[in-house]
Description:
By secondary structure, the chain is α/β, with parallel strands linked by helices.
Amino acid sequence: MTHVKPGQPHPPVRLIGAGPGDPELLTLKAVRALGEAEVVLVDDLVNPEILAHCPQARLVRVGKRGGCRSTPQDFIQRLMLRYARQGRRVARLKGGDPCVFGRGGEEQQWLARHGVACEIINGITSGLAAATDCGIPLTLRGVARAVTLVTAHTEDDSAPDWKALAASGATLVVYMGVATLPATRGHLLAAGMAPATPVAMIERASLPAQRHCVSSLAAMEDDARAFGLRSPAVLVIGDVAAWARAQETRADLRASA
Length: 257
Ligand code: SAH
């Protein structure tokens, strides 16, 4: 990964992490990079308020939202390449961190194979923000020494090693896990994880509409249904999830402040 400091030439393409949604969770580096971009390809999980940092840029909306129609990945890559070859300063703005289930690595390699340099600018990944938003420390001395970010959804239908994950004792943060929630529950129970293991399900983390539901491994399917859990959401599974505050929304928090 190359990191370009202020004053150095702009790389042809930047993959910028837009963070989980709250515009205040953008990095200063992302804000500067957005201000320098001429074309910005915007992912559909990006909060539109963030685009206030690139009023000068041409915006191209691309997206790969699970379950919805989306712009095919190879089309997006070709578009980046085309703009870069035209000499434009291209930014690809992605939700969370570009390299956490964001295809940042793939896109960087693909561009490199086509002779185009690409800088990656980190963003706060939604799993971190989601946990913090509802009061969960992802690691906690004496409770959890490790965290695993995992997705239950893969294009090739390969599955994570649930047995190893269950045995690891690490806090699990499951991305893209709403549709596959019943299967994840089944796999972890079959792998021997305790049915009473605390689970927090956090929707729209860091946004005003954020809400979460606290449950257990055994009950999470019924509770998610009753709660009406919708994507984008992450699941935090492990003893630290017991630290989640009782369910409330960000609006509730503001009202009680
Ligand atoms: N690169 C992103 C993840 C992209 S995969 C990141 O680092 O956060 C898309 C998944 O991210 C969603 O299915 C959901 O699991 C999670 N996600 C993204 N934004 C979210 C948000 N604001 N709240 C909860 N989950 C979110």
